[in-house]
Amino acid sequence: MKNKEQEFLAHIETNKGIIHKICKMYMDTADDQQDLFQEVVYQLWKSYDSFQEQSRFSTWMYRVALNTAIVFLKKERRKVQTSDAMPEHLADEDHGGTEKELQLYHFYKAVQQLEKLEKALVFYHLENYSHREIADNLGISEVNARVKLNRAKTKLKELIKQQGYAF
Amino acid sequence: MHFDDIQSLWNKDDGGDDMVVPVNLEKIKSANQPVERIRQYVKREGWGQLLAIVLLGYAPHFCKTELQVVAYYSLYSVMVAICGYYLYRFFRFYRRLGTTALSTREHLDEVYYDIQLHVEMYRSWTYAILMLALGFATIRLLTSPGVVIDSTMVIKMILLFAVFMLLIVVCTELWIRYTYGRYLKEIKKIRGELREEL
């Protein structure tokens, strides 16, 4: 049991960047992202036995992590005054805000406004999945995946433009 | 802007080190999944219902005659049998939800229909108990010493029962909406997004 747990945690450690990206796409605050991260790890561990027959951990992980993110419910937190303003360190390049960080900030901010399924489509696309693979993973038809993905990409560009940013 | 720009940005993003991988998996729990929240309600209610059944066993203190006590325990045993069946089904449902893995879309469908079925069972169980309660209330009213049964009394009883039934129906539906309905709605929305036509 301990060996299995260690093996699982090693897989997670290797692939945590992917889970991290999913969390940033689906949740807008650091607390919610951490909650989702924990939830994804929990769901992965819960269904780890079903992975044994799969060929690659990452392929299986993508599917479980995204499905978890899609049905994830935000914790009902007390309303905190939030601002749309950009974090200070990003606004001022002299204080460490690089172009890459700025682009990522705008990208994730726009992605967070997409529908849950659109986020999954964009994620798979950015991970270089084919339309066929995206369709299989999400349980939709290939044509549907292609059309929905194109719509999502257009919407994403529009959302980034609305933020007054272009790259 | 081209999507290729986003692609290259995406490839360069290593995710950072903000997220903490739990050291001990036993300590992590799920709390933000519709399925898990429903499980929590089912568990809490299950214990509550068991407690209520035990407490109801002491209710004959309120009976006024021997006949009422006999009638009460007859109906009580029927209720225990009904509750036994339903609570067993609810327990199976609770266990099933605990082993649900969300690795495919089919799992989401399975969970959705399972919750819907549970809601229907919950309704039928509540109304079965309601009928037994009304049956006992009728016996109690009709067998209480000094009660005169005339048309006014019958009308009063019908009105009282109608109001009581209405109240129970409204409360049950509100409770179902609060405990299961909102999560079912959430899952339905996701299924709708997946199924949406072109």
From TrEMBL, chain A:
Pfam families, per database record: Sigma70_r2, Sigma70_r4_2
The RNA polymerase sigma-70 region domain, residue ranges: 12-78
Keyword terms: Sigma factor, Transcription, Transcription regulation
Residue ranges of domain RNA polymerase sigma factor 70 region 4 type in the record: 108-156
Keyword set includes Transcription regulation: yes
Family: Belongs to the sigma-70 factor family. ECF subfamily.
Name this protein carries in UniProt: Sigma-70 family RNA polymerase sigma factor
TrEMBL record, chain B:
Positions of transmembrane segments: 69-88, 125-142, 154-176
Keyword tags: Membrane, Transmembrane, Transmembrane helix
Entry annotated with the keyword Membrane: yes
Domain of life: Bacteria
Name of the protein described by the UniProt record: Uncharacterized protein
